[in-house]
Amino acid sequence: MDCSVTLKSKLPQVKTTIFTRMSALAAQENALNLSQGFPDFDCPPALSKAVQKAMAEGKNQYAPMAGLMSLREKIARKTQELYGAEYHPETEITITAGATQALFTAITAVIRYGDEALIFEPAYDCYAPAVELAGGVCKFVKLKPSDSYKIDWEAVKKLCSKNTRLIIINSPHNPSGSVLGEEDMKKLEKLVEGTDIVILSDEVYEHIVFDGIRHESICRYPNLARRSFVVSSFGKTYHVTGWKTGYVVAPAELMAEFRKVHQYNVFCVNHPMQAAICDFMDNTAHHLELAAFYQTKRDLFVNLLNGSRFEITPSAGTYFQNLNYTAITEEGDVDFAVRLTREHKIASIPLSVFYRDNADYNRLRFCFAKGDETLKKAAEILCRI
Q: What's the mean per-residue pLDDT of the chain?
C-alpha cells in the first residue's frame, strides 16, 4: 500500500545504528559479541524467584504512577546511606521504565524551544535527540582521550549563555570509562551558582567504580542536588537490563515537572519487577560488592591483553574497556570494528559514533560484563591481531 503522506523529521539522521548493526553482524558471523552493553550471565537467583513470587501473588496490574511506595522508601534509605542525601519518597522519587526513559522524560520536562543543553562528547546516544525533539539546541563539549577525557571547565563556562537551560553529565562515563572527581563537582557547582541551569546526572553505573575511587554522585553536593535530576538503573546494578527498570531522584519542584511528562509517556512501570526489586534491595551486599565483582573482570580482561598490540588504559568505571589500536592499523574505527567482526569473529563498538562529528581517535569499546570464559576467548583473539 502506497502512503501519500510524507513526514519530515526534525531530528538528524541517527548515526548510532552501529549498535544494532554490530550485534546483527556478530550474530551473522557467529562472533563473540562484546559490542552492546549487557551481561551474558543471569541475575541473582533470589531476584528471579522474587519476580515469580510477585506474579503468583497477583501483582500483575498497574502499579502507582510514581512507583511502589515500598520501593521508593527503600531507594530513599539507600540514597541517604550511600550519599547522605534525603529525598522524600512521596514527592522526590519516581520509578521509570529504564534509565533511557528517565533521561528522555527529564530532558523534555525542562527544555523548551530555543533552550540550550550542554552535552559532553563522546556521549550516550539518546541525549541529543531528546533535546532536539523538544526544540532545544545542543552545544557539545568535546572530551579527548589524549586528555584522559577530563573536562576543561573554563571551556564549558565560555559555552554557557543566557539560554543555557541544562547541563548533562555522565559519571561513570559511557563510553570512555572515566569518572568525575570531587574537584569536578566543585567546579560545576561554581559554574551554575546564581543561574537557573538544571543538571541532569546520568549515574547508571554508580556502583561500578574501580581502584578504590569514590563515586561522586550529585546527591553528595546539596548545592548541586537542589537543581538536579539524578538517574539510576536497576538493570545495570542487578544484571537485568531487559527489565528496563530504573529511577530518578530530584527535588520536589523538579520532580513535579518530571511527572507531568512521565504520566503521559509511560504512566507506570511493570508491577512484578518493582515488587521483586523491592524485596531484593534488602540484600545490600549486592550493590556494595558490585565494584569488586566487575573489577575482577576488568583486571582479567586487561591482564590477558598484556603483550597484545593494543594500547590499554584500564577503565576507571562502567563495564566497558577501550582499546587503542593505533599500532595495528590506520583504518577508521568503524571499518576496523567491522573487519574484526568478520575476519576475527569479535564484535566491538567504534567510539567515533559517540561524537556528533564522528571524531575518530582509533578507539574501540569492548564490554567486559561477560563470563570469564568469554573474556578469555576474546583476549585470545585480540592477542593474535
A: 95
